[in-house]
TrEMBL record:
Belongs to the intradiol ring-cleavage dioxygenase family. Keywords: Dioxygenase, Oxidoreductase. This is Protocatechuate 3,4-dioxygenase, beta subunit. InterPro entries: Intradiol_dOase_C, Intradiol_dOase_core, Intradiol_RC_Dioxygenase, PCDO_beta_N, Protocat_dOase_b. The lineage of its organism: Bacteria, Pseudomonadati, Pseudomonadota, Alphaproteobacteria, Rhodobacterales.
Length: 245
């Protein structure tokens, strides 16, 4: 018997009861694309775990500034905001030097994508995507505009709440998790069929970024804080991999 505490295991098992089921008929497109057979769990190979890695040389000076990285002849239209936070592991330790990417609609609710046919106009000064590496403390930071809500063809009058897609890479390309960040106080969150596929209210709350007036810039930008937890009971809900990273 020893007084030395055992080190934590390499992984915390994700609680699948908190995950949205693949088949959720109220989210209509899930009916056609949900799997009919049990999922297969595959171990990562050494090459997938160890690389390739991202470095500061892979990023441009404006990659995390969506107000400037696509601007042609002026500033983007919309409410200027800061989105910031930390990437943490299951024991609240920072995850340094990991690539965080975001993409979003413009202030009118339209994506810069050829298949987006929503009637809101394209903003010529807004590209809608950015990326940065977390620092040694796991911290990331973006400047952007608050995205608009937009309609989508689910039921007669469904609207997606304002949201930003967030991607986090691990130590290699095969380790990628994707989620969506919503904004505090948005009444459309409770009405969104996609959000409501998550069966746990606390898990939904962890997708909602609170207003952070301490990080706001007076007369310039409001700020929202969104910490990303990769595994464990307080983990962020991810779209693409229910089993976790």
């Amino acid at each position: 018997m020893t007084d030395t505490a055992l080190p934590p295991g390499p992984f915390y098992q994700r609680d699948r009861r908190l995950q949205p089921p693949a088949l959720t008929p109220a989210y209509k497109t899930s009916v056609a694309r949900s799997p009919r057979l049990p999922m297969i769990s595959l171990e990562n190979t050494i090459s997938e775990i160890t690389g390739p890695r991202f470095g500061h040389a892979d990023l441009g000076p404006l990659d995390n500034d969506l107000l400037r990285n696509y601007a042609q002849d002026g500033d983007p239209i919309g409410e200027r905001i800061i989105v910031h936070g930390r990437v943490l592991d299951e024991n609240a330790r920072p995850v340094p030097h990991t690539l965080v990417e975001i993409w979003q609609a413009n202030a009118g609710g339209r994506y810069r994508h050829k298949k987006d046919s929503y009637l809101a106009p394209i903003d010529p000064n807004f590209g809608g995507c950015g990326r940065c590496l977390t620092d040694a403390d796991g911290y990331y930071f973006f400047r952007t505009v608050k995205p608009g809500a937009y309609p989508w063809r689910n039921w007669v009058n469904n609207w997606r709440p304002a949201h930003i897609h967030v991607s986090v890479f691990g130590s290699g390309f095969a380790q990628r998790l994707i989620t969506q960040m919503y904004f505090e106080g948005d009444p459309l969150i409770a009405r969104c069929p996609i959000v409501q596929t998550v069966p746990d209210a606390d898990a939904i709350d962890r997708l909602i970024a609170p207003l952070d007036m301490n990080a706001a810039i007076p007369l310039d930008s409001l700020a929202y804080k969104f910490d990303i937890v990769l595994r464990g009971r307080r983990s962020t809900m991810f779209d693409n991999r229910p089993e976790g990273n």
